[in-house]
Amino acid sequence: MKRLETENLSCGYSGRNVLENINLHISPGSILGLIGPNGAGKSTLLNTLARMIKPKKGKVILASKDLWRMSSREAASTMAFTPQDSGNSLPLTIRQFVALGRAPHRGWLLPLSAEDRAVVEDALEKTGLSGLAERCITELSGGEQQRAALARVLAQEPEVLLLDEPTSHLDIKYQTEILDLVAHLAHDRGISVIISIHDLNTAALYSDHLALIGKGGIASYGTPEEVLREDIISEVYDTPVIIASHPLYGTPMVMPGLKGRNGKKVINL
Amino acid sequence: MKPSRYVLSISVLLLLVLILAIFCVGAGAVSISPGEVFKVLTGAVKEGTDYIIVMNFRLPRVILAALIGGGLAAAGAAFQGMFRNPLADPFVVGASGGAALGATMAIAFGLSIQIGPFNSVPVAAFIGSIGAVFFVYLIAESGESTSTVSLLLAGTALSTILSSAVSLIMLLSDKTLHETYTWLLGGLSGRSWTDLTGTAPFILLGCFVLWLLSRPLDALASGEKTAMSLGLPIKRTRALIVLMASLTTAASVAAGGIIGFVGLVAPHMARLFFGSSHRQLIPASMLTGALLLMAADVIARTAVAPMELPAGIITSVTGGAFFLYLLKTKKGDLGG
C-alpha cells in the first residue's frame, strides 16, 4: 500500500523547473528522508507534495487520489505539513495554536467538540507541552516552537506527515528529542513521514529510506546504506567525504574528507 | 484566556462601555446628571428639555461613536492578524485614501449625489473607500505571487497617489479648504439618527462576519503556509476578510471622517488582556474601540466648548502616545 506517491512529477517556481521526473512513494509507518545540497530543491519538492505549489507536470497521488482533484480540506484531513520557519508574529497560546490542527476535521466555523479538545490535549501531552499550554507561542525557545509545530500536526491526525527541516537551528538535544518523537509517530502510529534534513548523519539514523535530491532530480534513492556512499555523496555535494559507521547502530556516518583541515595531521591511513 | 474568565472580562468591559455612554450622554453645554439620563433611557421621562437633548442630539452621537470606534477596532484587529503585522490598521488597503478623495471631490466640486437621506459627502466617501480597496485587491491578486505582502504594498502605493490627488484638489479650491480639512481630520459633530441608521447595518454585518472568521484569522496569523496546509481556501478567505473589514471601515469613515489610531491601538490594548485568539480578541477590540472613541468624542465637544475639536485629533494624540508607551514597555508584543 502506498500512502503518497508521485508520478513523473516536475516541480518548480514560475517558469523554472527545479526538479524533473520525480517518482517517489511512501508506505505506512515509514520515514523517508530528503537530503541534498543547499538549493537542490528539497523544500520545493516538499511544498509541491504539501499542495502549496502546483506541479509543473505529473501528479501527486495521496491515498490513491490525485492531490489536485481533492478539496484542500480533504487533503488537509489526510496530510499535514510543517513549513520551514512558520514563525508566529501574533502571540496565540500554544493550546490555541495546536487547536488549529482540528480545523480540517471540524471546519472553520463550529466550536471544537469535547472529542476535538481531547485530541488537542493528547497532542500537547505527547509533545511534552501540557505544562506550557497557556504560554504564548512567541515566547518559546526554538526547540519548544518546533515541538508546538509538531503538536499542531499531531492534532490534525494525519496519515501522511511532511516536515520541512524541523531540526534546523536546534542543538543536538532538541534535535534528538524532535526526531525521537517523529520516529515514534511513524513506528507506533503508522504515520508516513517525509522529512527534509540537512544533517546527513541524523538523516541516516532516523530514516528508513533516503532520497538524495540533486542535479534537478533524484540523484539516488534507497536505504541509508545504499545512498550514503562515498562516491555518490562526494559527487553530488562536490566535496570529498569519508563514510564510517555509527558505533551503536551501524548506520552510515558522513565526514568531511581529505583536504587541508586547519593543519590537522592525517592519522590512521 | 479560559472561557469562564473571558465571559467575566468581556462583561466587565461591556459594563464600562455602558457607564461611559451614560456619562457621555450627560456631558455637554447643558449638563445632565447620570440619574436623569438613566430615567430618559429607561422611558421614565418622556418630555422636557433633557429628554430632547438626550434623545435627539446626544444619544445618537454617542452610539455612533461607539459603533465607529468598535468597527474600526474590529477591522484593525482583523488586518493585524491577516497581515501578521502589528502596524496594520483599517486603512492599510487604501480605505482612507479612497474615502478622502471621494469626500474632497464632493466638497470641492459641490457634487450632489443623494442616496436616501444621505448627502454627497458620506456617499462619495463610502464609494471612494470601497472603490480604492477593490482596486488594490485586484492589483495585488492579479500577480502570480499570492502573498499578502503585495496587498500591503499596493495599498500603500495607492494611498500615496490618492493623498496627492486630495492635496492637489484642496490647493486648487481654497474656499472649501477648511471644510475639507475638518472632514479629513475626522469627527462626529452634528451627527444624528440618520447617520446612525445608515452606518449601523454595514458595521454590524462586517464585525459579525469578521468574528465568524476568527479561526481562519488565527490560522492566517500563524503563517500563510500553515493556513494552507490546514485546508483553508486562502484566496477566498482573504477576499472575504478584506471585503468585510473594508465595508466596516468605509461605513465608519463615511459617517465620521478619517479617525486615526483607534483601529490601530484598540486591538493592541485588547490583546494585553485578552490574548491573540480572534474569537475573543475581536469582541474585546470592539468594546475597547468603542470606549476610546466615545471618550475622545466627549473630550472633543467639551474641552474648548462652545467650539468643537475634531475627535480624530484627540484619538491620534492619545493613541500615538499609548503606542509609544507600548513600544517602550514591550507589553503588546509589537513586532513579536
Give an overview in words.
The complex is a heterodimer of chains A (269) and B (336). Chain A is an alpha/beta fold and 269 residues long. Chain A is built from ten helices and 13 strands. In chain A, the strands form three sheets. A six-stranded mixed β-sheet of chain A has the order 7-8-9-4-10-11, sandwiched between helices. In chain A, strands 1, 2, 3, 5 and 6 form a five-stranded antiparallel β-sheet that branches. Chain A is globular, with a radius of gyration of 19 Å. Chain A starts with a strand and ends in a 13-residue tail after the last strand. Chain B is mainly α and 336 residues long. In chain B, helix 4 packs parallel to helix 6 (148-172). Chain B is globular, with a radius of gyration of 20 Å. The chains are: A alpha/beta (269), B mainly alpha (336). Chain A binds chain B through residues 14, 47, 50-52, 71-77, 80-83, 86-93, 96-97, 100-101, 103-104, 108-109, 136, 138, 152, 156, and chain B through 80-81, 84-86, 144, 212-213, 215-216, 218-219, 221-223, 225-226, 228-233, 271, 275-277, 333, 335-336.
